[in-house]
């Protein structure tokens, strides 16, 4: 039952040490940096992060996994049994995570509100494609806009299904994201972006007028606007 519950949440444990080494290499962690990890899991990534950094803050929601990894505490590791995405104003330099697939969108929404230097994240390959989808494409979603507006995105390498236990049914990919300078966003704007994409095929100007905005993109439909335009519109409307 334990495995079934974790699989339903998209949680698969990384067991391939070659992939682990590649993640550490691309993270380029230095001894003066603080690392934040979402999903301690079996702890094999966590302890490698501790070896290379000044300090690691690792969050694990599953109480059984938390109890297991807590038995191997290190002096520069803080383990938290809780939901990292409910945490505000957390101070860290690097975010590193093998995210449960069901939490990927939530994680990127959360990262858009944080201050940090870079992130190395393992996600579902299909989700990685959504992050870089262009306006008008089927995969162009609210998360595409949020990520493209806030971050520079680099797709690094694919990860074979056999690198996990249990083996997932989807392909995985590791990506690097670096915050863009002066591209801050608010929680309200994020909520409005998701609302706009619920109206994705409507003309942007008509939606803008309906919700008290004077922003005018002519007859362009919402799904055809680029990230900067949608954020501008999201900031100007009053929905919630």
Distance between the termini: 40 Å
What is the oligomer described by this structure? single chain
How much β-strand is present in the residues? Answer: 15-25%
Q: Topology as H/E string? A: HEHEHEHEEHEHHEEEHHH
Largest sheet: 7 strands, mixed
CATH superfamily of the largest domain: Vaccinia Virus protein VP39
Overall pLDDT, averaged?
Answer: 91
Helix tally?
A: 10
- CATH class descriptor name of the largest domain: Alpha Beta
Level-2 CATH architecture of the largest domain = 3-Layer(aba) Sandwich
Low-confidence stretches: 1-10
Shape: elongated
How many beta-strand runs? 9
Q: Give the helix proportion (percent range).
A: 25-40%
Q: Please tell me the total number of domains.
A: 2
Q: Please give the radius of gyration in angstroms.
A: 19 Å
Structural classification: alpha/beta
User: What order do the strands of the largest sheet run in, or round the barrel if closed?
Assistant: 4-3-2-5-6-9-7
CATH topology-level fold name of the largest domain:
Rossmann fold
In short:
The chain is α/β, with parallel strands linked by helices. Helices cover 36% and strands 20% of the residues.
Descriptive account of the structure:
The chain is of the alpha/beta class. It has 2 domains: 2-179, Vaccinia Virus protein VP39 (Rossmann fold), CATH 3.40.50.150; 187-236, no CATH class. 36% of the residues lie in helices and 20% in strands. It has helices spanning 2-8, 17-27, 44-52, 63-69, 104-111, 125-131, 142-150, 187-197, 204-210, 227-236, and strands at 13-14, 34-38, 55-59, 77-80, 94-98, 118-124, 151-159, 164-165, 172-179. The protein has a 7-stranded mixed sheet. Strands 1-8 form a two-stranded antiparallel sheet. Strand 2 (34-38), helix 3 (44-52) and strand 3 (55-59) form a beta-alpha-beta unit. Helix 7 runs antiparallel to helix 8 (187-197). The protein is elongated, with a radius of gyration of 19 Å. The model is unreliable at 1-10 (pLDDT under 50).
């Amino acid at each position: 039952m334990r495995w079934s519950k974790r699989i339903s949440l998209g949680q698969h444990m990384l067991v391939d040490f070659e992939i682990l080494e590649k993640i550490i290499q691309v993270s380029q962690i230095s001894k003066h940096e603080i690392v934040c990890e979402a999903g301690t899991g079996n702890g094999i990534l966590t302890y490698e992060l501790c070896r290379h950094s000044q300090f690691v803050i690792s969050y694990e929601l599953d109480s059984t996994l938390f109890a297991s990894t807590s038995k191997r505490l290190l002096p520069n590791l803080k383990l938290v049994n809780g939901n990292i995405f409910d945490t505000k104003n957390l101070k860290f330099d690097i975010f590193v995570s093998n995210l449960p697939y069901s939490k990927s969108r939530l994680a990127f929404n959360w990262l858009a509100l944080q201050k940090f230097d870079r992130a190395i994240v393992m996600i579902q390959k299909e989700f990685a494609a959504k992050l870089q989808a262009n306006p008008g494409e089927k995969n162009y979603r609210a998360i595409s806009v949020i990520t493209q507006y806030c971050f520079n995105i680099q797709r690094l390498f694919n990860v074979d299904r056999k690198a996990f236990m249990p083996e997932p049914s989807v392909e995985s990919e590791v990506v690097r994201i670096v915050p863009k300078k002066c591209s801050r966003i608010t929680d309200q704007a994020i909520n409005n972006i998701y609302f706009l994409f619920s109206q994705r095929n409507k003309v942007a100007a008509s939606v803008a007028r309906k919700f008290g905005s004077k922003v005018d993109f002519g007859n362009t439909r919402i799904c055809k606007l680029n990230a900067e335009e949608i954020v501008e519109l999201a900031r100007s409307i009053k929905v919630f």
